[in-house]
Write the structure tokens for this entry.
Amino acid sequence: MSTQTQKTILLVEDETIQAMSTGARLKRFGYAVIDAQSGEKSVSFAVGAEHFDLVLMDIDLGNGIDGIKAARQILLHRTVPIIFLTSHIEKETVVNAREVTCYGYVIKDSGDFVLQSSIEMAFALFDAHKHTQESEERYRALVEWSPDAIAVHRDGKILFVNQAAVKLYGAATADELLDTSILDRIHIDFHQIVLARVKTALEGSKDTPPIEIPHVKLDGTIVDVEVQASHIIYDGAPAIRASLHSVAERNRANERIFHMSQAVEQSPASIVITDRDGSIEYVNRKFTDITGYTLDDVVGKNPRFLQSGNMTPDGYKDLWETITAGGEWHGEFQNRKKKTAISSGNLQRSHPCSMSGARQHTILL
């Protein structure tokens, strides 16, 4: 083992001969060794700046604190793997040691292979725990600051909410929501639907499909929410993670679009909408009443098919040059009806633009 990657072991052993023997074995394995002859000394190393990567701890340390108490105090200051190296084989002692740490319990004089393997496995387990913890912390940070609200619940009780969920429900802090009933946040008309979806999520491995469900804020107001639930393991037990996205603004926008479409459809003026190339995309009911042509009759056609032939070429040229340039044209126009008759009226053309300013449609009134 090179000095660049050499790990250091804090050996806590009060018997001098045993400490010398074990220290020599550790050095043969390629480790650097720091000796501590008492539990108090080992704790002082932990409190201080001394670097070590693992603790090999005897349990019976004579006068002073024993190895189990010393290990507890070390872990208050350092996050390191601790292996108990002892001659004690009593069940009570093993249980007490396991409550402190689970990286290893080696009986003295077990032989080099057992000791070396126990140390290597402790390092591997510690690294795995460290990587898992770092991964969980990164994931938790992503969830905590996700723009979508996220709540975790089990057996009907809320276990976790992120900042977006706190805001969604109108809470001041997460504590106002934790350990409360998830059904308190669901409109009563949807309780059975939610319970059925929870059951489905717990029984399966796939996310439940998104569904819009009214949720209840802490002040009792209703907010429209799109919910997707999935089965996860949270703190070692099955739970439900609900991703919540407010659709209140989307619903308001859809309602405005609906009202606008109804206004266009029921307008007393004939309305034709074309794409950028002049192909008809929409005509309203009044257009059909006047011309006799339905939407199916005219969609995809150019409005020129309605020409009566009574407009001069210069007039058509002026009309289309104005439209092509993005301007508005006003004037009197005569169109041909479906049954060859001619209708007349005032015509106005305009060009609504996209958010980028590009002309996308032409509207004829």
Observations:
- The chain has eleven helices and 15 strands.
